Amino acid sequence: MQARELLLEAAAKLKEAGIANPWFEAQLLLGWVLDKDQAAVLAQDCQLSDQQAKEFRQGVEERRKRKPLAYITGLKPFLHWDFSVNEDVLIPRPETEILVELAVQELKKAFPGQSVLVADIGAGSGAIGLSMLMLLPSARLCAVDASPPALRMAQTNAAKFGLSQRATFFSGDLLAPLAQLRGQFACIVANLPYVAAEEYANLQPEITEYEPREALVSGPDGLWHYRRLLRQAADYLLPGGMLFVEIGCTQGPEMQKLFCGHGFAAPHVEKDLAGLARIVWGAKT
Ligand SMILES: C[S@@+](CC[C@H](N)C(=O)[O-])C[C@H]1O[C@@H](n2cnc3c(N)ncnc32)[C@H](O)[C@@H]1O
Q1: 211 lines ligand 1 (CB under 6 A)
Q2: N or C end: fewer C-beta atoms under 10 angstroms in the chain?
Q3: Is the distance from the beta carbon of residue 191 to the nearest atom of ligand 1 less than 6 Å?
């Protein structure tokens, strides 16, 4: 069957299902089935085998039911790398890339040339911590998640990127599994759940029906996890060590107060590309 014919059929079905960019998503799905990038899919009106056409139509069916594209393909691009994902982990978001870039930049300034130890708390797929290892070739990582299946996906990604020797994985609550390493971290990064319980029901079906609820919801105001993290974080950092967290866009002022009250002076709030407050960070006083 001709690729163009299948693309037209798929785009019409996705549009009918209310998918915002049906043509674009149809191309991405076709690229995944053919193992080609989008430009190659567009450039060639190639012929698909019956098996490929079947696989493509199955993908379109799943997408019609609002399954996120990343869970269909099993891949999500994050910074320069394709992370493997499944329904045990949150799909890494583009706004989280800013946290990685900022943390790497500040680590290079604060600990130049040093072999630093980084903690990624709520590691999920490992997108934050493993990307930092790729950008900081002498760094080592301790990745913690409360979900053992999520941690397995992070380990899969570490192996995929050749980082297993520099990363250690811990199952447990926040910093508790790292108690023996208290005072040794140059940096703690965390994208913990931050959605308020009553906001959760208003999120898109792609999120509420497929992504793990325990990766998103954090008590009545979305700050249950971060309040507990802030009580522990400074004890785990070296002098001058830094904490970086991703937040919801209205949580900046409250998070700044939490930072100030727990051993971090003059915390910064950084915006994402949409101009929304997204990261809070500060150095231990
Ligand atoms: C918003 S997801 C972020 C995943 C990944 N860091 C990213 O940025 O894509 C939050 C993660 O925190 C984990 N988590 C939830 N509660 C936790 C806790 N008490 N201790 C450690 N991890 C927790 C969830 O299992 C989930 O993987």
Answers
A1: no
A2: C
A3: yes
